[in-house]
What we know:
Blueprint: H1 2-20, H2 26-34, H3 43-58, E1 77-87, E2 92-103, E3 109-120, E4 126-131, E5 135-139, E6 142-153, E7 161-169, E8 174-177, E9 181-182, E10 198-206, E11 217-221, E12 227-231, E13 237-244, E14 247-254, E15 263-267, E16 276-277
Parallel strand pairs: 10-16
Antiparallel strand pairs: 1-2, 2-6, 3-4, 3-5, 3-7, 7-8, 7-9, 10-13, 11-12, 11-14, 14-15
Helix pairs in contact: 1-2
Amino acid sequence: MIKVLLLWIVSFAVGLAAMQYNGVESKDAAIAIAQAPTPTISVHYVTWLKNRESTQIAAEPGATPTPSPTPTCCVFTATIGTTCQFQPASGLYDFNVAAAVNNPCGQTQTQAANFYLEGSTDGSSFEFISRTSLQNYDFGPGLNTINESFFPQSIPEQYQYYRVRMQIYACGIYSIYSSAKPVCRTGPTPTPTPTPTMATVSGRVLTPAGLGFRNAIVSIIDPQGVRRTATTSSFGVYSFDNVTTGQFYTLTVSSKRYRFSPRVLQVDGNLTNIDFVGLE
């Protein structure tokens, strides 16, 4: 490409001199100009031409580029242990954290992480209290131990429980939690509020003769006075789902034909065969 360009420039110069020369024979003028120094071409321009030719060759059909390998995301697992110590002189707390982090990636990984201290009133819903500075940690293959602490640390009075969350900034962002523990306050240790379970209460409404009584209205009333109702089937069957356990309930039956005595019972689990027999 460069040689072709040089020949074209020289030919153009010879032709131009032959046409514009006045008083001198065309042949002599052409020879004089042809013997003149060759015009200088910029080194930058030559480099651009070479790069352009290389780009054109690389872009020709059949030249398949090699894709870059897709990085593999490797997620850690960890067990986070915590201790709590109350300082009576200052009324503050010392929380120590020991995180046993397993690196399954087969090679050392440098990943950013930090720790969050969270508080809770009931041991299930937690809120932010404090956090450590974000740091880069070198995790070798296998088990690694990280020690961190929060001290001196104040804890609002409403929080009876605490936990620590380790947040790792790799593969996006993911978190690993410690178990919830009571805040080490002076006085008795609080008991976490148990999560209520649900039960089913069911039975039949019967006529005095023992037959199923349809379209009777059965009501179940909780200690707060909240009433739920159910209509019996053609066989006199009724059922209440999602009844909170650990409470007393009143069950009544309404009918224009028969009278039914109400029943009071404690629900600690599923109850069946809670039957009502009509009175004339």
